[in-house]
Design goal:
The chain has a single domain, classed as Aldolase class I (TIM Barrel), CATH 3.20.20. The chain has an 8-stranded parallel β-sheet with strand order 7-6-5-4-3-2-1-8. The radius of gyration is 19 Å and the shape is globular. The chain is 46% helix and 11% strand. The protein contains 11 helices and 8 strands. The relative contact order is 0.15. The chain has 297 residues and is α/β, with parallel strands linked by helices. The longest helix has 18 residues. It starts with 11 loop residues before the first helix and ends in a 12-residue tail after the last helix.
Length: 297
């Protein structure tokens, strides 16, 4: 069993060498198409802007259900991710589909608020029908070494989620070191996270392969110790089909076949779906769609 009070040592060079090998894997056409469709099915299609409107959310939900109707056997994305005040709109728009509604909460993206407000934010999302909640940890508390505070906060949010699955965002770009990423991953998992997630997508760097690999290793170690699966969601900065396939190679070689499903792996993205559809159109029809063929929102 992992204990987040212990010091963690990360082999940075070893991780970089391992990732370089992931990125040189050759993927043949049939496997490429299969991988791209799998990646598409794992996307949480996201709009998290201050200018979000009901109309924009409805359009995103329509896109999620009709992203390219003229292509054969195309899966839908896994979920739509919105702010709590747009959950009702998304839920209604997706009522005849299997696409889930995820909602950010807990004073996203900074997390700088009281637990009372964070719990209210979470309950609002769940009461409005969210299937999943994406929370942010208190990075300031973590960086000051207040690990119990971070753990207790995650546990409280997990309880407030009820039947909704909880994704815990570490905001790895603010954690400074891979050792901190490992420690934060352990805290989140032990506190009850159903998924651990790299980033809000609001700061740079967001998701990177080294950070994701450390988080996948943490999930693997927890599974080896307990037999319990935890999901993974890299988010922010993954915009090309090629990079999505590289992440899937890393996922498969680190955690194995059981995690190769949107129940246990997601991409947090807004533009990735478009590039995947363009690549699948090229494979099926022999020509690229114009970038204007697919809506950007």
């Amino acid at each position: 069993m992992m204990h987040f009070s212990q010091l963690v040592s990360i082999d940075q060079l070893g991780i970089e060498e391992r990732i370089a090998r992931f990125n040189t894997r050759s993927i043949k056409k049939a496997s490429k198409v299969q991988g791209l469709k799998l990646a598409l099915s794992m996307i949480d299609l996201t709009t998290l802007e201050g200018k979000d409107t009901q109309g924009k959310v409805k359009q995103l939900c329509y896109k999620a259900q009709h992203i390219a109707d003229d292509l054969n056997n195309l899966p839908t994305v896994a979920a739509i991710c919105v702010y709590p005040n747009h959950v009702k709109t998304a839920k209604k728009s997706l009522m005849n589909s299997t696409i889930k509604v995820a909602s950010v909460a807990t004073a996203f993206p900074s997390g700088n608020s009281s637990l009372k407000i964070k719990l209210a934010d979470t309950r609002m999302a769940v009461d409005h029908g969210a299937d999943e909640v994406d929370m942010v940890i208190s990075r300031g508390q973590f960086l000051e070494g207040n690990y119990r505070y971070v753990s207790d906060e995650i546990s409280a949010i997990k309880e407030a989620c009820g039947n909704a699955r909880l994704k815990v965002i570490l905001e790895t770009g603010e954690l400074s070191t891979l050792e901190n990423v490992r420690k934060a991953s352990e805290i989140a998992i032990l506190a009850g996270a159903d998924f651990i997630k790299t980033s809000t997508g609001k700061i740079s760097p967001a998701a990177t392969m080294p950070v994701t690999y450390v988080m996948l290793q943490t999930i693997r170690d927890y599974y080896d110790a307990t037999g319990k699966m935890v999901g993974m969601k890299p988010a922010g900065g993954i915009s090309t089909a090629k990079s999505a396939l590289q992440y899937l190679v890393m996922l498969y070689e680190t955690l194995g076949d059981a995690w190769m499903t949107n129940e246990w792996f997601r991409f947090g993205a807004s533009s990735l779906a478009n590039d995947i559809v363009m690549q699948l159109a090229k494979e099926e029809k022999g020509v690229y769609y114009s970038a204007d063929y697919i809506s950007k929102d």
